[in-house]
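Many introductory courses stop at the sequence. We go one step further.
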Amino acid sequence: MTKAGYNKKLEEFNKIKEKLKETSKNKITAAYDGSGDTWHDNFTYEQLDLQEEGLIDRLKGYQEFLSNVVIVQKEILADNQINIGDKVLIQIIYEDEDSEELTVLLDDASNDEHAVSLASPLGKVLYKAKIGETHYYEVENIKNKVIIKDIISKMPSS
């Protein structure tokens, strides 16, 4: 993952932490201000309790993800190799022989709807691949074939 992608995930993690703090505070207030006794028969408290549990689970997932991240730096690669920030034309041939051509951006920090994270199975295959190569990647035990057709645009080296 790029440093920018890591920072984006860390920002999301921190937003969830803040939301958890707010939810916990509201839960305490609901326990004492709501109907019923402290937490029994108190709909608001119960809903906030469920929300709190969900946020805790999300935080655990983010924490595990962030602790296992490997930061990659943009390298100087050959012109025909896919690098971070490159927009690429690919053909994916799915296990059922259906296929499609896509233009994707290899960048886990982009807001582009066609961005592919370096941490994803497809991103791992695309990074450093060369035009004309064929690779395979697996998602949920389904093996897909990807053919690198062309590099549409390259991100300038910094």
